[in-house]
Amino acid sequence: MLLSIPKNKSLYLAGELKIRVLDGDLEIFGTLYKKGDEIVIPRYRSAPAKALSVVGLEIKFGEEGHISEHDFDLIPQEWRILAENILNMNKKQQVIMVIGNVDVGKTGLITFLTNKAINAGKKVLIIDADTGQSDIGPPTTIGLGIPEHPIIHLSQVRFLDAFFVGATTPAGIFNRSIAGIIKLINFAKKEDPDIIFIDTTGWVEDRGGRELKISKIHAVWPDLIVLIEKEIGELNHIYKPFQNTDLEFVRVPAAPILRSRTRAERRKIRKSIYEKEFKDGKEVVLELEKLGVTYGFFGTGSKPKEETVNAVKFIIGRDPGYFEESEDALIFVDNSLSPKEIESLKRYLGKREIVIINRDEIKYLLVAFEDKNEHFLGLGTLLDLDPIERKIEVFTNVDPSKIATISFGYLKVNPLGEEIGWLTPWVL
């Protein structure tokens, strides 16, 4: 399809589209595309374009791809002013956090600001903290990337590192989300960037949303917080706790047109990313004694003392089978204990936790691996564990010789990349 776009007209581009500029100057997310340039808008993604002159385009439509023409700028003027102000700050290693509700254009704003900064010669790093709609790094992680050229979507950013949260929502594990951002900020600063952008989740309401965002602000204390709002003042509950501090806030309007993703589309996107993550994967057996273990009890205990074994036998009146002992816990595998027995074990042995691991229940639990320098290596899915041999079997494409640490999530994902359920944190 051939199109001629008058000067100052805007286009809303929704993928899947393949575009070639035949003539004229076209701006997309703050970057200029000229004659001969080719542009790809993937499925489920969109971008705003503006004709800076009369523009000729050749467009090929894929599944669900479509365009619409508009008389107004799809990049709000406040976004353009914000970009100029950020560039004029002229401070090294600025940390800028973008906060907004779902479907307001946070990622689009960061894409626009990133391109304006890159085109001005700035070095930019991006932290993608939206674990459910990750563009940098796989789902269930907070990702860090560096754009090496102007971008249309964040998945074009070169991946640097990630922090495994273990779920597609921060609910119930705020500490992991905050720890991940702090860790990646510290790593990002070693790259000596001019600007670090932080893209956050759209959870900004109710007690949980307030707790998460206020805690992140306290932990990071960014140089600038950008509140992106559909209606002026809708994020006052995030601003007011800090209104008497020296924190700098800027409010900008939401994108005028957005492509909202349905829950089903988000699951499809995550599945496609898991599939890539597990591509060429294989079954790998890891020895627990050679691994660091995080977010799980199994493998952190030792063979119980003889007096502990005898005490457990006496309390429950039978052979307990395999279990580990640590200072704070007893960790049983494939055993069944009644609530009364659990309370008795806690009381008489002084343990704060009695953990009961069901091997069938934990199959396909999502796990992540780090190397000895605490850098993210990739994901895996748990297949089985052998408590006697102290081994764990996973499906992954990560080189086992590089694995130093395994972290347990609480989302279940099979080797086909299908999300099949949830468990409680620290179930293993």
Walkthrough of the structure:
There is one protein chain. This protein is α+β, with helices and mostly antiparallel strands and 428 residues long. It folds into 3 domains: 2-70, Jelly Rolls, CATH 2.60.120; 77-261, P-loop containing nucleotide triphosphate hydrolases (Rossmann fold), CATH 3.40.50.300; 278-428, no CATH class. It has helices spanning 77-89, 106-119, 174-189, 206-220, 236-239, 263-278, 306-316, 339-349, and strands at residues 2-5, 10-14, 17-23, 26-28, 31-33, 38-41, 46-51, 55-61, 66-70, 94-100, 124-128, 141-146, 158-164, 195-199, 224-229, 249-253, 282-287, 292-294, 323-325, 329-333, 353-357, 365-370, 376-386, 391-396, 405-413, 419-422. Strands 13-12-11-14-10-15-16 form a 7-stranded mixed beta sheet, sandwiched between helices. Strands 17, 18, 22, 23, 24, 25 and 26 form a 7-stranded mixed beta sheet that branches. Helix 1 packs across helix 2 (106-119) and helix 3 (174-189) packs parallel to helix 4. The radius of gyration is 25 Å and the shape is elongated. The mean pLDDT is 95.
Show unreliable segments: none
Q: Count up the helices.
A: 8
Rg is 25 Å
| The CATH homologous superfamily of the largest domain | P-loop containing nucleotide triphosphate hydrolases
3D shape: elongated
CATH topology of the largest domain: Rossmann fold
Largest sheet: 7 strands, mixed
In what range is the share of β-strand residues? 25-35%
Biggest sheet strand order reads: 13-12-11-14-10-15-16
Write the SSE topology.
Layout: E1 2-5, E2 10-14, E3 17-23, E4 26-28, E5 31-33, E6 38-41, E7 46-51, E8 55-61, E9 66-70, H1 77-89, E10 94-100, H2 106-119, E11 124-128, E12 141-146, E13 158-164, H3 174-189, E14 195-199, H4 206-220, E15 224-229, H5 236-239, E16 249-253, H6 263-278, E17 282-287, E18 292-294, H7 306-316, E19 323-325, E20 329-333, H8 339-349, E21 353-357, E22 365-370, E23 376-386, E24 391-396, E25 405-413, E26 419-422
Parallel strand pairs: 10-14, 10-15, 11-14, 15-16, 18-25, 20-21
Antiparallel strand pairs: 1-8, 2-7, 2-9, 3-6, 3-8, 4-5, 4-7, 11-12, 12-13, 17-24, 19-20, 22-23, 22-25, 23-24, 25-26
Helix pairs in contact: 1-2, 3-4, 7-8
